[in-house]
Design goal:
Length: about 425
């Protein structure tokens, strides 16, 4: 029956998801999107047929594979990349940490304003102060010098994303954090597979995060992960993720400590069931086993996905280099080998190009585009008011320029060379129409 089921799934996949030919002007050029085949469906259905569904065997296998791939000791799957960022930052507020290391309300966390809200929101939600530094146009990452200048006696952590998969000077930032005794969190959600000095990003910080939303390098539909090399931090992360409970038994298992009814913690009576003792203010943020099964199938393709992103980025660079007079093309550090999330373009000054008109033109041609997330987050509606205390460490001049002049296009595995030629041709047509070369 199982063999017959697999055959039916394979046939169903071929019928439901036939390969489509790209037709310029009619087919969409996606900004991102999931790439899958019958293997994701087979594993997901196998997970359903197991009847367990919540975190279990598939989750444990995916955690192990992700930890090994990134090069860290521990991985905890969660229900989204946003939850991953929230857990990573909140874990550092735990009373299980030494008093001198624990983050407390009013402490400062260095980050960037040209980023995604869920890197910044956990800082504010924990009563901490985001300290914003500017980024460099071209890399869209902050310089080490900017991070150093933002440091104050209140600084306790650095929490920065590798923008669009492009690594910042992570080894030097890690060294600076070590010197100043700061926590370092890598938001690696857009950078799975990126390397800096032949070492995977996500392995430099005390904690790192991943997102598996369909736009990202691999997908579990919704989902994410928190990674660390530190056994204590891993225990804290899993406690916050699992309702805040003190018990460390895996889902569905009891009494791995062989001491379940002999604990006395807080003001609870001696012998209170350890499965119902809560040492952190947590929630249930776990991933399901069905999602993890999808992730296991995706991990078999990760090297192909990363190679395709790099290949597409290279070909886009070659095709779009003819527009150097109009756009600043993305660049990376010499020691970086990005697993690119997108190809970002910044319109140069005095070119006569109106970004809104250009994006509408590309949209009409079915070419997907995105802005660099929040632009300058301090100018977002929710950020204006008394609820988002922050400090701006330096003039956010480049951040504001990016907010007004930058956009990005896709480089994911769904993109092919025919699409890239089509993008380049349409950029050329727009420039000829609006700038009159």
């Amino acid at each position: 029956m199982r063999d017959e089921l697999k055959k039916n799934i394979i046939q169903e996949f071929k019928e439901r998801f036939p390969e489509k030919k790209f037709i310029p002007g009619q087919s969409a050029v996606p900004i991102s999107g999931k790439v899958f085949d019958e293997q994701e469906l087979i594993l997901a259905i196998e997970a359903v047929l197991e009847g367990w569904w919540t975190e279990g065997e598939y989750s444990a296998r995916l955690e192990s594979e992700l930890a090994s791939y990134v090069g860290v000791n521990f991985c905890s799957l969660v229900n989204s990349g946003s939850s991953a960022n929230l857990l990573a930052l909140t874990a550092l507020t735990s009373k299980k940490l030494p008093e001198s290391k624990r983050l407390k309300p009013g402490d400062e966390v260095i980050t960037v304003a040209a980023g995604f809200p869920t890197t910044i929101n956990p800082i504010i939600q924990n009563g901490l102060i985001p300290v914003f530094v500017d980024v460099e146009i071209g890399s869209y990452n902050p310089s080490l010098e900017s991070i150093k200048k933002a440091f104050s006696e209140k600084t306790k952590a650095v929490f920065i994303a590798h923008t669009l998969g492009n690594p910042y000077e992570i080894d030097s930032v890690a060294k600076f954090c070590e010197e100043k005794k700061l926590w370092l969190i890598e938001d690696n959600c857009d950078a799975l597979g990126s390397e800096y000095k032949q070492k995977k990003t996500g392995s430099y910080g005390h904690i790192s995060t991943l997102s598996f939303y369909p736009a990202h390098h691999i997908t579990t539909a919704e989902g994410g992960a928190v990674l660390t090399n530190d056994a204590l931090l891993n225990k804290i992360i899993r406690s916050f993720r699992d309702w805040g409970r003190d018990c460390w038994c895996p889902t569905g298992k009891d009494d791995t400590c062989k001491n379940r009814f002999n604990w006395q913690l807080g003001n609870l009576p001696h012998g209170y069931d350890h499965k119902y003792i809560y040492s952190e203010m947590g929630y249930n943020l776990k991933m399901t086993d069905i999602q993890a099964a999808l992730g296991l199938a995706q991990m078999k393709k990760i090297n192909t996905f990363v190679s395709k992103r790099r290949e597409n980025f290279k070909f886009l660079s070659e095709q779009l280099s003819r527009f150097n007079n109009y756009f600043i093309l993305p660049r990376c550090l010499p020691s970086a080998n990005p697993s690119w999330f997108g190809f970002i373009l910044t319109i140069k000054e005095n070119t006569g190009i109106d970004r809104t008109k250009l994006l509408k033109y590309l949209n009409d041609k079915k070419i997907g585009t995105r802005l660099l997330f929040a632009g300058n987050i301090t100018k977002q509606p929710y950020f204006i008011g008394d609820n988002c205390g922050h400090r701006i460490a330096e003039a956010l001049q480049n951040t504001d320029f990016i907010m007004a002049n930058s956009f990005w296009i896709g480089v994911g595995p769904l993109i092919n060379r025919e699409m890239i030629d089509y993008i380049a041709d349409n950029l050329n047509d727009f420039i000829e129409l609006s700038v009159k070369i």
